[in-house]
Design a protein that fits this description.
By secondary structure, the protein is mainly alpha-helical. It is built from one helix and no strands.
Length: 72
């Protein structure tokens, strides 16, 4: 009791090296955040196309006065 879980009960030191979990957790967090940003961007682009009926950047203008179709 009181020892880290990676040290066997009959040992006083680590018998082998182990991977540091902090970089792995940070990379996993970055992947999850990246997926969330990608999903938000896809939804934003689809909603813009549905509202304005165009995906041409030259045709996109100020949309403050445009209301969604069909009461959405």
């Amino acid at each position: 009791r009181g020892r880290p879980a990676v040290i066997p009960p009959d040992q006083t030191q680590l018998v082998s090296t182990f991977a540091d979990p902090v970089p792995q957790a940070l990379i996993l967090t970055a992947i999850v955040i990246g997926f969330g940003v990608l999903a938000f961007t896809v939804v934003l682009i689809r909603r813009t196309y549905k509202t304005l009926n165009t995906d041409d950047l030259d045709q996109l203008q100020m949309t403050d006065s445009i209301h969604p179709k069909n009461g959405e």
